[in-house]
């Protein structure tokens, strides 16, 4: 930090303050973690200074031999870790990984057959008229993904996101009574809509998915099954999700972030079958710019860590701790979407405390508990204010929390929510954002969490 401070002290100060915040609060954001010193240090090197557009052994720049080594090692670890036929480690984020996946599927399933029919090797050989027809065909495909309020991600066909604009999209939800994924309803929707791409995976669904069943549905309607395991890839890597719950043997293409339960650097990956590998491998420059060699190096280090037995112990603890957290809420009268959890996250409906998700989130933050507000199925408050709080166990499990600490965490959160009232706007009207936290509660919670 001294080196940084000599150039721009405000950045050194903000970095130091972030360390204090992350150590001094209860970090329950389900998509966050604490990467190891080895991962963090690997990101801060001169590998960052090298341009290497293209792919291993086929670069648009000279002198990429060391980046080739880094990228090959990262991809090898990813293949071994997940038992995948092919791994692409260049995506800079989860959204990038999903865009690479979408365009690779379109290239493989729509563009390649059209080129073959026209006797062209690549799109540059097409006449302007043929290219225009192909471009329109690419833009006329269908995607079916899980809706945002059922726990899906905005990249799964949500209209404000490019995925919702690129495709004709429809969404599937969960059973309105149980909150669980209804495979029969999904199959019926897929039969009717006939998507080219069926996306499974979630950001806020607290249950496991039977990917073998989803693959059957995809096969029946001729869809490519793409699973976005951004949230639970740590549980796949750590062999908590196996068999039908492991997406890798069942999906054609699997995407993930590397920084959530997988505990690596910020970034994304795409795994694919041999069939889809050649088009995914063209992710740069099809979708991406020059790869971040320093981050690919850090991914390799994180994957090497995740291949150790200790990571399996960690992943199991993440799932066990989520159960402890859920039971902690249920025993104190909490209302959980789907009634519990069997992955790394818990979705608490805060309506019974008379609060919106936004009010709950900010009251908890005052008490040093970092969570994020989240929609619940058929949310009456919409996606901005919401009615839920999403909580995840990956980060605090890395800090060594176990059953007792997570039970205590549920107790502290319940105490904050029971002692928070909705506030009013300056003009005195109802507000979905304003809240009043009872005196003394924030300090009480902060003192209790400092002892954990
Ligand atoms: N996919 C899912 C399921 C996610 O939950 C997220 C992030 O929250 C992403 C993709 C996007 O990841 P990133 O923020 O790295 O682009």
UniProtKB/TrEMBL annotation:
Site (Plays an important role in substrate specificity): 259
Localization annotation: Cytoplasm
Major localization listed first in the record, in broad terms: cytoplasm
N6-(pyridoxal phosphate)lysine found at: 260
SUPFAM superfamilies per record: PLP-dependent transferases
Domain Serine hydroxymethyltransferase-like: start-end pairs: 5-107, 140-413
Tree of life domain: Bacteria
Record-stated family: Belongs to the SHMT family.
Assembly behavior: Homodimer.
NCBIfam families: PRK00011.1, PRK13580.1
Name by which UniProt lists this protein: Serine hydroxymethyltransferase
Organism phylogeny: Bacteria, Bacillati, Actinomycetota, Actinomycetes, Propionibacteriales
Gene this chain is encoded by: glyA
